[in-house]
Amino acid sequence: MKTKNTINKLFVILVGVVCLVLLFLPTGFENPSLVNGALREKARVISVNDEDLQNHSVVTVGTQDLELEVLTGDFKGDILEANNVLMGQKKIDKVFKTGDEVLAVLTLNKEKNKVISARADDFFRINIELILFVLFALFLVSFAGWTGLKALVSFIFTALCMWKILLPLFLKNYPPIPLSLFIVSLTTTVIILLVSGFTRKGLVALLGSIVGIVLTSIMALLFGYYFKVPGTVHEFSETLLYAGYTHLRISDIFLSAIFISAAGAVMDVAMDIAASQNELIQKKPGMKIRELIQSGFSVAYPVIGTMTTTLLFAYSGSFIFVFMVFMAKGTPMVTIFNTNYIAAEILHTLVGSFGLVLVAPTTAIIGGYVYTRKGREKVLSE
Predict the structure, then answer these.
(1) CB contact set of 203 (below 8 Å; sequence gap of 6+)
(2) How buried is residue 135: exposed, middle or buried, by Cβ count under 10 Å (0-12/13-18/19+)?
(3) What gap in Å lies between CA 274 and CA 370, rounded to an integer?
(4) Residue 356 DSSP code
């Protein structure tokens, strides 16, 4: 038992070290031209002049003239004149008022000792984002203790793998499907081993998750082909093409996103079933394979029922306004469901839900064999 606990703790430390390495690992897409000759500092709006703004129905255009007090950096305390240009696009325009804290972009002269111009780029949200993350981390650790700490490490590891490995390799045009499968399998393995340790429960959940992810990816590829939904259906995908990344396999990245999105729910179902079967075999060590598998199925039925609806909520929530527009215009249902971005969400939801249905019995079967095999006491113990 002590040896197992030591191994688990060493694994947590190892993953923590990997997180530190990934944190400082360059992506290869850093752009020095965006920071050379310009500073990004926190500032406070101390006065606003809205005389140039013009309201046209629901949109506002024009320029806000601002006075900013710089709150950080070498120019802290300086009062600068800045502007905020409104383009008439409500999803990107910001209207500032006195007292707002903003991210100010300060353009410097060649000697970098004087500010030539300033611009209010956006509201300053870093502080509140950090506060929210710290509250999340504190609540997780205080509620779940050592397990919560391991879950927090897995959360950070997954985020860093996505940002530092997956996205840069996508941009370098590595094959999206196998790359995504590798990253999802890697993060799933680390998450499960962190939370469950090197145990039979972890082994069953891991095997079930990997099988479920592979099956989900096959479903995504198969039905993605017949749905004929272009990868450019996702927002900002065309922006990448216009930025010079015409070589990217946008459609493959779109399909990869389907099973990446479903991976968390698949892992959750696999862990639920693995944990339930583990509890059963602990209470009743003499259970036969068929009996334990059937018990796993019994656990899977209600889990599947709720998790599939969870995916429906998760994926459709971002499309509330789209459906409202269609309804407001009286658009026929046949038109709605043939629209490419609606079809993309249907593909997301149904393939993800199909993955959950597949992973449940698969995990139950794997658990039946792993938990009841002979000599299990000598291999992976709980």
Answers:
(1) 370, 380
(2) exposed
(3) 10
(4) H
CA 56 to chain CA centroid, Å, is 37
Give average pLDDT by consecutive 10-residue segment, the chain, 382 residues.
77 94 90 77 93 83 91 91 86 89 88 83 93 95 91 95 95 94 94 90 93 90 88 85 88 90 89 92 87 90 81 77 88 89 87 86 92 58 48
Query: In the numeric block, which tokens belong to residue 358?
Result: 């597949």
User: Which of the 8 DSSP states describes residue 122?
Assistant: E
CA 251: distance to chain centroid? Answer: 19
- CB within 8 Å of 100: residues ≥ 6 apart: 44, 45, 123
pTM reported for the whole predicted model: 0.86
Q: Among candidates 191, 203, 247, which has minimal Cα distance to 11?
A: 191
Distance CA 115, CA 39 (A): 9
